[in-house]
Amino acid sequence: MNPRDAAPDDDATNPHAAYTLDALRGLDPAVRADILCVLDRVARDLPAHWSRREGVPQLLVFLDGHGGARVERTGLREMAEYGYLDELHRWVRGVPAAKAREHGCAALVYGNRIHARINRIGPFGAARFAPDTHVAVCVAHRDVPLAPGFSFTFDTVGRFFPRLVLHDWVAETLDRARRG
């Protein structure tokens, strides 16, 4: 069994699932429900936005006011309003916080290879088009000053028509957090 696909109960072999579950259970139930709505939308829509060539795009996911969440693509130009692009820490918190003030809860989603895409690292060093291995989800909620961030691992399946597949523990952990 691959440790990344281990059941959420097995905290020793899957630290990502254990962290995600603990972080979600530590939140107020109303805040947890909003964040789970956003995380569910990320898990459901990310495969449709992923591409082999560009990897995980920058997405903004936020509550739509009707009990669901919306996904919008955002670019580096919009994120540059919150700081220089090489200052990842500024816009990772600034972009979703601004949207959370307006909608209640928001998340910025990006792949772990974003620095290579921003800096356009060439043929030496870290290759620009090396594949992402996980997606980072930076969550902001208007009732929580510093909401936790999450990271979901994934694989790509298929040689000619590849698609992104999140590991089984992601859905299982979100379900367990929803139940309490």
Rg over CA atoms, rounded to whole Å, is: 16 Å
The helix count comes to: 6
Helicity level: 25-40%
Biggest beta sheet attributes: 6 strands, antiparallel
Mean pLDDT: 82
| Strand portion | 15-25%
The total count of strands amounts to: 6
Shape estimate? globular
Q: Which structural class best describes the helix and strand composition?
A: alpha+beta
Domain count: the total is 1
The largest sheet has its strands arranged as 2-1-3-4-5-6
Q: pLDDT below 50 for ≥5 consecutive residues: which ranges?
A: none
Distance between the termini: 27 Å
What can be said about this structure in brief?
This protein is 39% helix and 21% strand. It is α+β, with helices and mostly antiparallel strands. The protein has one domain.
Features:
180 residues, 6 helices, six-stranded antiparallel β-sheet
Description:
The protein has 180 residues and is α+β, with helices and mostly antiparallel strands. It has one domain. It is built from 6 helices and 6 strands, in the order ααββααβαβββα. It has a 6-stranded antiparallel sheet, sandwiched between helices. The radius of gyration is 16 Å and the shape is globular. The two termini are 27 Å apart. The model has no long low-confidence stretch (mean pLDDT 82).
